[in-house]
Structure formats: C-alpha cells, structure tokens
Write a structure and sequence with these properties.
single chain, 288 residues, alpha/beta, 6-stranded mixed sheet, 4-stranded antiparallel sheet, globular, binds adenosine-5'-triphosphate, binds magnesium ion
Length: 288
C-alpha cells in the first residue's frame, strides 16, 4: 500500500459522523455480525526499524480482547495504529466497516487517499484510550477532567456535561471525589477518572494500554473491577495487560504478540492454559 498525502475530496466521502452500513445490518440478520474492529495485515516501521510485521486481528462488538507479549513486541504500537496515533506503513484498520485514515476506495491508480485531519479526528473521537500514566489535567478537578472534552469537542452545554460527568464518576466509584484535583487522588483513583474521561465521549471502542502497571499492587483491583463492569455492560475493549488472572476471567480473546507479529490468538482457556508455541510458554512462565 502506498499512501499519498493528497488532500481528499470531502465530497466523495460520507459524513464521518454516520456510519450506518446496510451490508452490516444484512450480515447481522444472517447471524454473523461484522466485527467492530478489523485489522488487516498492518505493518509499521519507524525509519528502518520494522515494529509491526503484518498483524491481522478481528474483535467483535462487546468482545474483550486482551493483548499480551514481551516488552518491545509492538503491543502499544498496534493499539496506537487502531486509533490513528500512529499511521500504519501498510495494511488497513476498519472500525464498524469504516476504513480508518483513508478514503473508502482507492484511486484509479490504486493509491489510497488520506483523509483530512478533521475527518481523522472525527474517527478518533469514536475510540477511547486509557494509558498507563493517567495524563489527567493537573489544574482541573476530577469533574473538570471528565467534562473537558464533551464541552470543548462535542460542544455539549456545561450543565449537561456536568450531569453526565457526575454519572460517570459515580460509575467508576468516585462520586465523592468529583471536586478533588489529581494531586489529591491515589493512582487508582486517578486512573478511574481517566476511564470516566474517556467514557464521556461515548466511545464505541475502548483501548487500554497497561492501565494498571503504574499502580501499587493494592490499587490494581479497583481499576480491574471498573474494567470488569465495563465488559459486563457490553463495551468493546482491547486491553494490553500482564494481569493474566483478569485475562482468564474476562477476556473473550487473548492475543499473544512477539517481535511485531501475532503468534497466537484464541480463547483464554486455549491461549493461556494450553499454549502451543514455545515462545508463548516461555512468556507465560516469566509473568506467572
Ligand atoms: N515513536 C517511535 N520511534 C521509534 N521506535 C519506536 C517508537 N515507538 C515504538 N518504537 C519501538 O517499537 C518497538 C515496539 O514498541 P511498543 O511500544 O509497541 O512495544 P510494547 O510491546 O508496547 O512494549 P512494552 O511492553 O515495553 O510497553 C520497540 O522496539 C520500540 O522501541
Ligand atoms: Mg507498551
């Protein structure tokens, strides 16, 4: 795939805010809904360094997909390609059937036209991301952090954004901490605010990049419990974590990456309990 930076013609593209696709409805009535996330042969290099070497993965709606693998295997890079914080060198990412970052069809010469920054921002707004370090705004309270994007990006009236933010803080068990600044919150509480903040944009997909690995052990459980609740409520999630107990209990699919490739993927009973590849067996022995 080559990627021209030619400016796309917005007139040829459907409204990024609407993504109803009749073929998806058709497929659904046939009993096999289109996956929410489709990653097709994604490659990513930084300069001469190949980091993703052809990753393909599908994640169904309401599925919890846990990504594991050694440091440097490309887990964060793959997540970042899904929400376009990185641009794949080759390959495709589709969310709900919509090609990410590129016009729906190639040009006559086979090249793919990149979407405008505005169109990319609209696609990215449908995906929530939570990082290992919480990245809260230090000058805003918990409530202020959760209200910020709905007010600034979605242009929601402040009152409405406030009500919704309080509801979300309640959902992550922090109704009584709404007026606290990040510096007045524990790591686990800050991470839960970060989750509420991502949810405030009403994402259809949540990405978590090691959401508990910066936390003291006693705070890990409260964050995992929020993730568990989200899963129960049907949120589609891709979670990079070394918490294999969580993976075993909550994941529908566990994906093992090594050296830029997906080595094994499947149900936790298979991937964690009965690994096929020696590399996965070695990795599991190192984290268990
Ligand atoms: N912006 C960048 N520029 C150059 N190299 C990068 C960049 N981002 C990541 N890399 C390299 O890509 C490889 C994969 O990195 P990535 O962060 O995706 O791994 P990871 O599996 O998330 O590792 P960890 O478990 O340590 O977080 C590493 O070798 C890393 O040094
Ligand atoms: Mg990482």
């Amino acid at each position: 795939m080559t990627e021209p930076d030619t400016c796309p013609d917005p007139g040829t593209r459907r409204d990024p805010g609407t993504h109803h696709d009749p073929s998806a409805t058709e497929a659904m009535s046939a009993g096999s809904p289109r996956p929410l996330v489709e990653i097709e042969d994604v490659h990513k290099s930084f300069g001469d360094l190949p980091v993703l070497k052809g990753c393909s993965l599908t994640v169904a709606r309401s599925e919890v997909c846990v990504l594991v693998g050694p440091s440097g295997s490309g887990k964060s890079t793959l997540l970042r390609c899904i929400n376009q914080l990185e641009r794949p060198t080759a390959g495709f990412v589709r969310i709900d059937g919509e090609l990410q970052g590129l016009a729906p069809e190639p040009l006559a010469d086979g090249r793919w036209q990149r979407l405008s920054e505005k169109q990319i921002a609209a696609q990215r707004a449908r995906i929530g991301m939570v990082f290992q370090r919480f990245h809260l705004f230090p000058h805003l309270t918990a409530l202020g952090n959760v209200m910020e994007a709905p007010v600034q990006v979605l242009r929601l009236p402040r009152e409405q954004a406030r009500d919704r933010a309080l509801e979300l803080l309640d959902r992550v068990g922090l109704a009584d901490r709404a007026d606290h600044y990040p510096s007045e919150l524990s790591g686990g509480q800050q991470q839960r605010v970060a989750i509420a903040r991502a949810l405030a944009m009403d994402p259809e997909l949540m990405l978590f990049d090691e959401p508990t690995s910066a936390l003291d052990p006693e705070l890990v459980a409260e964050v995992l419990s929020v993730l568990r609740d989200l899963a129960r409520d049907g949120m589609t999630m891709i979670v990079v974590t070394h918490e294999l107990g969580f993976a075993r209990e909550v994941a529908d699919q566990v994906v093992f990456m090594d050296d830029g490739r997906i080595i094994e993927a499947g149900a936790p009973q298979q991937v964690i309990a009965d690994p096929r590849s020696p590399r996965l067996r070695e990795f599991l022995a190192s984290v268990l």
